[in-house]
Amino acid sequence: MATEKPLVLLVDDDEDFLFQQRLQLQDAGFEVITAQGRGEAEKILADKRPDVAVVDVMMENPDAGFVLCHHIRKNIPAMPVILVTAVNSETGMDFDMASEENRDWIKADVLLSKPIRFEQLRGEIDRLLAVKK
Fold it and tell me: CB-based contacts of 63: which residues, under 8 Å, 6+ apart?
Protein backbone atom coordinates (compact mmCIF):
# COMPACT_ATOMS: atom_id res chain seq x y z
CA MET A 1 0.00 0.00 0.00
CA ALA A 2 1.44 3.36 -1.03
CA THR A 3 1.68 6.09 1.58
CA GLU A 4 0.47 9.55 0.74
CA LYS A 5 3.18 12.15 0.28
CA PRO A 6 2.96 15.21 2.55
CA LEU A 7 1.63 18.23 0.64
CA VAL A 8 3.64 21.46 0.89
CA LEU A 9 2.22 24.81 -0.20
CA LEU A 10 5.00 27.17 -1.39
CA VAL A 11 3.97 30.83 -1.67
CA ASP A 12 6.41 33.38 -3.09
CA ASP A 13 6.47 35.94 -5.89
CA ASP A 14 10.03 34.87 -6.78
CA GLU A 15 9.64 32.30 -9.56
CA ASP A 16 13.23 31.10 -9.15
CA PHE A 17 12.68 30.41 -5.44
CA LEU A 18 9.45 28.50 -6.21
CA PHE A 19 11.12 26.47 -8.96
CA GLN A 20 14.21 25.61 -6.91
CA GLN A 21 12.36 24.68 -3.72
CA ARG A 22 9.64 22.75 -5.58
CA LEU A 23 12.21 20.57 -7.35
CA GLN A 24 14.16 19.88 -4.15
CA LEU A 25 11.03 19.13 -2.12
CA GLN A 26 9.68 16.80 -4.81
CA ASP A 27 13.04 15.01 -4.93
CA ALA A 28 12.80 14.64 -1.14
CA GLY A 29 9.42 12.90 -1.44
CA PHE A 30 6.93 15.74 -0.95
CA GLU A 31 4.01 16.73 -3.12
CA VAL A 32 4.23 20.46 -3.81
CA ILE A 33 1.75 23.09 -4.92
CA THR A 34 2.89 26.63 -5.61
CA ALA A 35 1.29 30.07 -5.54
CA GLN A 36 2.83 33.36 -6.65
CA GLY A 37 1.02 35.51 -4.11
CA ARG A 38 -1.46 35.75 -1.27
CA GLY A 39 -4.57 35.82 -3.47
CA GLU A 40 -3.57 32.72 -5.40
CA ALA A 41 -2.67 30.92 -2.15
CA GLU A 42 -6.04 31.75 -0.58
CA LYS A 43 -7.81 30.27 -3.63
CA ILE A 44 -5.76 27.09 -3.30
CA LEU A 45 -6.51 26.89 0.43
CA ALA A 46 -10.24 27.08 -0.28
CA ASP A 47 -9.98 23.65 -1.99
CA LYS A 48 -6.88 21.94 -0.61
CA ARG A 49 -5.47 21.28 2.84
CA PRO A 50 -1.68 21.20 2.62
CA ASP A 51 0.22 19.61 5.47
CA VAL A 52 2.50 22.66 5.77
CA ALA A 53 2.82 26.10 4.17
CA VAL A 54 6.02 27.97 3.32
CA VAL A 55 5.16 31.66 2.87
CA ASP A 56 7.26 34.65 1.79
CA VAL A 57 6.66 37.91 3.67
CA MET A 58 6.83 40.48 0.87
CA MET A 59 4.87 39.62 -2.26
CA GLU A 60 2.17 41.68 -3.98
CA ASN A 61 2.11 43.91 -0.88
CA PRO A 62 4.84 44.37 1.74
CA ASP A 63 2.69 42.58 4.34
CA ALA A 64 1.06 39.94 2.11
CA GLY A 65 2.83 37.05 3.88
CA PHE A 66 1.72 38.24 7.31
CA VAL A 67 -1.86 38.63 6.06
CA LEU A 68 -1.75 35.11 4.59
CA CYS A 69 -0.43 33.73 7.90
CA HIS A 70 -3.39 35.33 9.70
CA HIS A 71 -5.76 33.84 7.12
CA ILE A 72 -4.28 30.37 7.63
CA ARG A 73 -4.41 30.61 11.44
CA LYS A 74 -8.04 31.75 11.32
CA ASN A 75 -9.24 29.12 8.85
CA ILE A 76 -6.83 26.17 9.28
CA PRO A 77 -5.31 26.64 12.75
CA ALA A 78 -3.56 23.25 12.82
CA MET A 79 -1.56 23.88 9.62
CA PRO A 80 2.11 24.60 10.36
CA VAL A 81 3.45 27.73 8.68
CA ILE A 82 7.05 28.60 7.87
CA LEU A 83 7.56 32.26 7.05
CA VAL A 84 10.56 33.07 4.85
CA THR A 85 11.91 36.54 4.24
CA ALA A 86 14.76 38.54 2.82
CA VAL A 87 13.65 41.62 4.79
CA ASN A 88 16.42 41.25 7.37
CA SER A 89 19.21 41.06 4.81
CA GLU A 90 17.76 43.57 2.32
CA THR A 91 16.61 46.32 4.70
CA GLY A 92 18.61 45.80 7.86
CA MET A 93 15.33 45.62 9.78
CA ASP A 94 15.57 42.89 12.33
CA PHE A 95 12.57 40.93 13.47
CA ASP A 96 12.38 37.42 14.75
CA MET A 97 10.15 35.12 16.72
CA ALA A 98 12.16 35.14 19.93
CA SER A 99 9.70 37.31 21.82
CA GLU A 100 6.15 36.30 22.68
CA GLU A 101 4.93 39.64 21.31
CA ASN A 102 6.40 38.86 17.87
CA ARG A 103 5.03 35.30 17.92
CA ASP A 104 1.56 36.70 18.67
CA TRP A 105 1.41 38.96 15.62
CA ILE A 106 3.53 36.97 13.15
CA LYS A 107 1.28 33.89 13.34
CA ALA A 108 3.91 31.50 11.98
CA ASP A 109 5.61 28.53 13.58
CA VAL A 110 9.05 29.29 12.16
CA LEU A 111 10.73 32.33 10.63
CA LEU A 112 13.65 31.72 8.23
CA SER A 113 15.81 34.43 6.67
CA LYS A 114 16.62 34.16 2.98
CA PRO A 115 18.75 32.90 1.49
CA ILE A 116 17.82 29.59 3.08
CA ARG A 117 19.60 26.32 2.62
CA PHE A 118 17.35 23.49 1.48
CA GLU A 119 18.54 21.32 4.38
CA GLN A 120 17.36 24.00 6.80
CA LEU A 121 13.92 24.21 5.17
CA ARG A 122 13.61 20.43 4.96
CA GLY A 123 14.57 20.07 8.62
CA GLU A 124 11.92 22.55 9.73
CA ILE A 125 9.25 20.90 7.57
CA ASP A 126 10.12 17.47 8.96
CA ARG A 127 10.09 18.79 12.53
CA LEU A 128 6.71 20.51 12.12
CA LEU A 129 5.13 17.49 10.45
CA ALA A 130 6.39 15.23 13.25
CA VAL A 131 4.83 17.57 15.86
CA LYS A 132 1.56 17.67 13.89
CA LYS A 133 1.12 13.86 14.01
Answer: 57
d(CA 10, CA 24): 12
Per-residue confidence (pLDDT) for residue 22, from 0 to 100 = 97
Q: Count the neighbouring beta carbons within 10 Å of the beta carbon of residue 75.
A: 11
- Lowest-confidence segment of 5-14, 33-42, 57-66, 87-96 by average pLDDT: 87-96
Beta-strand runs (E) in the chain: 7-11, 31-35, 52-56, 81-85, 110-113
Average pLDDT, the chain: 86
Residue 92 has pLDDT above 50, yes or no: no
**For the whole model, what pTM was predicted?**
0.87
Dist CA 43 CA 35 (whole Å): 9
CB 12 within 8 A of CB 84: yes
Distance, in Å, from the CA atom of 24 to the CA atom of 12, rounded to the nearest integer, reads: 16
> Hey, what amino acid is at 39?
G
- State whether the Cα torsion 63-109-16-43 is positive or negative: negative
* Rg, C-alpha atoms of the chain: 14
Amino acid letter, 5: K
